[in-house]
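Continuing the batch. This is chain 6 of the set; chains 1 through 5 are on the previous pages. Same settings as before, nothing changed between runs. Recording input and output for traceability.
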Amino acid sequence: MNIKLAVIEGHGDLCRMTLRTQFSADIQAVWRVITQVDQLKIWWPDWQPGGVLEPFERGRVVLGDGRWIDGEVKVWAPPHVLAFSWREDTAGGDWFEAHTKSLLTIQLLQINSTQIELTLFQYAPRDSIVGGIAGWHYFAGERLKSLLESEAFDDRAERFDELVALYEEGHGN
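Output for chain 6:
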């Protein structure tokens, strides 16, 4: 599977990661797989019953088991742009929430009659960026590509750790 390593940019407390990958698929099919709960539960990590992605701006987003992502849709522009944020309300002074709030944008671009480019941008705290981008690479890159192109998927438990090691070495910069 040939997916470029993501780029991590920025200095200080907040970084931006950018992951780009291409799929041989119809743009509507890709949109369905990234926005419909019955599809998300196939490739999303730690999916639990009760996951939600309300298909409109200001809609609720609860992905996985809700511990990590419980937020709000910021942009809903089918079939090209989905953006959502989570952990915005840090008024309670919770350290974990204050240090993990984030914004994710997924853009789909039809680059020719058979290829779609997915670009994922995430703004996140520097101290969570390596694990975050390794996870996006694994799930939104490799696993999603395998699903859309009906290819075998490397589901070894060690694969995530391999990606973390690559990004820790700075290959994504």
